[in-house]
Design brief:
Elements (H helix, E strand, L loop, with lengths): L6 E4 L3 H12 L4 E4 L3 H11 L5 E3 L3 H6 L6 E4 L5 H10 L8 E4 L5 H12 L4 E8 L1 H7 L2 E4 L3 H14 L18 H29 L5 H11 L7 H11 L9 H4 L9 H12 L4 H14 L1 H6 L13 H37 L5 H7 L11 H10 L10 H24 L4 H14 L5 H12 L12 E4 L5 E4 L1
Parallel strand pairs: 1-2, 1-4, 2-3, 4-5, 5-6
Antiparallel strand pairs: 6-7, 8-9
Length: 479
């Protein structure tokens, strides 16, 4: 065993433990540290045969075990806990050493930490890690930010432990400076919210309108997973729907309380999108849908509200409807990813990160929660046109949505007439229609704003800013 470690991990809960094991399995000597020392020794006792570990019991011992430049991975709860770990370790580090934050930190906190540590000669690498505990152990998608210099030292190690796309490419790239990595991870999670909500709405339509049982819907999803919807989330959806509760014999989904929880990254995505002025309606509706599900008292008090007379489809009609739902799900998925990539582009411009959207798509092809076959298509679209305004500007995606839109609209119409809530499906279609509309009612909005607040407006026929003196003569003046 080496007396020095190439990398160290502090914070040995499930994610930190598995990430440490991943490094060790790939031939690196890993220094271990945890506030509760017993957890450090437990890891070595249980998994010491997987590679070389150096168990340490103090911050000083941990830092001393690391070779220069020191690479210290922090896997603790985001927020105050992360700041506390940085305050403990930073004074022990030297110029050129690096602290790698692998938690779900807010990118604004990462930008602050990177700036503060840079002043002390320490590299702070805010790193998004996606794939859950399985990914951390067997290969996650990794989204590191920070300096280019830090990636030269750290990158090869991350590439070795990362997931690999089907063509063998490592699912990691240097995203950009300071908070870029955590920003991209935040948007990844926002897209994940939208993806899950769209899948949930497809499930409810198949059940409430199509009349399919959970087990039958599981088979439908398994079939979809062999085609263009091939993805991790579709795969696990089939597994969840096919599962039977051991204690009751009922379908698992029927014994789970229908109140979805959230950890906050979806909300952050929507909040930052509002700050950037970027429409992410698919993600927003997914976040709000979870919020609605959690307001149990409001939902209970509203059960007296009238709805339409629902009708379940006959068997032959249900099969045709399932095909329409697949079309709607695929079209909506394209739109939700379009919105997410638009937000990344806007954030990159706002903070001068110069993020390569094609590389972002490429590292999401494996390891992460939203990994999907069609990310190959997104990667190719941005490689062919790096300045692509949005995915819907790509002819291939535009043609696919054009081919799907009649079924997409029919599914949403059916949902409305049958009283099945599909906020994400509806939001994606509204976004699509807004982009293709020749004129939007924003012209009227500007007129209203000018009337009550003299906020001015621009014209289609000449340059300049104008204001109308709203009175009997309605005189128009320059702004």
């Amino acid at each position: 065993m080496s007396s020095t470690a190439q990398i160290g991990v502090t914070g040995l809960a499930v994610m930190g433990r598995n990430l440490a094991r991943n490094f060790a399995r790939n031939g690196y000597t890993v220094a271990l540290h945890n506030r509760t020392v017993a957890r450090t020794h437990e890891l070595v006792e249980q998994f010491g045969d997987e590679g070389d570990f150096i168990a340490t019991e103090s911050a000083e011992e941990f830092v001393s075990a690391l070779e220069r430049p020191r690479r210290l991975v922090v896997m603790v709860k985001a927020g105050e806990a992360t700041d506390a770990v940085i305050a403990e370790f930073a004074p022990l580090l030297e110029d050129g050493d690096m602290i790698i934050d692998g938690g779900n930190a807010h990118f604004a906190d990462t930008r602050r930490r990177e700036r503060e540590l840079r002043d002390h000669g320490i590299h702070f690498v805010g790193t998004g890690v996606s794939g859950g505990e399985e990914g951390a152990l067997n290969g996650p998608s990794i989204m590191p930010g920070g300096s280019a210099e830090s990636y030269e030292s750290l990158g090869p190690m991350l590439e070795k432990i990362s997931a690999k796309a089907r063509n063998g490419d490592p699912c990691v790239t240097h995203i950009g400076p300071d908070g870029a990595g955590h920003f991209v991870k935040m948007v990844h999670n926002g897209i994940e919210y939208a993806d899950m909500q769209l899948i949930g709405e497809a499930y409810q339509l198949l059940r409430d309108v199509g009349g399919y049982s959970p087990a039958e819907i599981a088979e439908i999803f398994r079939t979809w997973n062999t085609g263009r919807l091939d993805s991790y989330l579709i795969e696990i959806t089939a597994e969840v729907l096919a599962h039977t509760d051991a204690s009751t014999g009922e379908p698992f989904v029927d014994v789970v309380l229908d109140q979805a929880e959230q950890k906050g990254t979806g909300r952050w995505t929507v909040q930052i999108a509002l700050d950037l002025g970027v429409p992410v309606s698919s993600i927003a509706e997914a976040v709000f849908a979870r919020s609605v599900s959690g307001h149990a008292d409001l939902r209970k008090a509203s059960r007296h509200l009238a709805g339409p007379s629902a009708r379940r489809l006959a068997k032959d009609e249900a099969a045709a409807f399932a095909d329409q739902v697949e079309q709607a799900l695929y079209a909506s998925k394209i739109v939700s990813y379009t919105q997410g990539f638009h937000q990344i582009a806007a954030g990159s411009a706002q903070y001068d990160w110069d993020i390569d959207l094609g590389k972002v798509a490429s590292i999401w092809r494996g390891g992460c929660i939203i990994r999907a076959a069609f990310l190959d298509r997104i990667t190719q679209a941005y490689e062919a046109e790096p300045r692509l305004v949005g995915l819907l500007a790509d002819k291939g995606f535009a043609d696919e949505i054009a081919a799907s839109q009649d079924d997409w609209r029919a599914v949403i119409s059916t949902a409305v007439t049958q009283g099945v809530p599909t906020p994400a499906f509806a939001a994606t279609l509204a976004y699509y229609d807004a982009l293709r509309a020749e004129r939007l009612p924003a012209a009227l909005t500007q007129g209203q704003r000018d009337y009550f607040g003299a906020h001015t407006y621009r014209r289609v026929d000449r340059d300049g800013v104008f204001h109308t003196l709203w009175g009997a003569d309605r005189t128009e003046v320059d702004g």
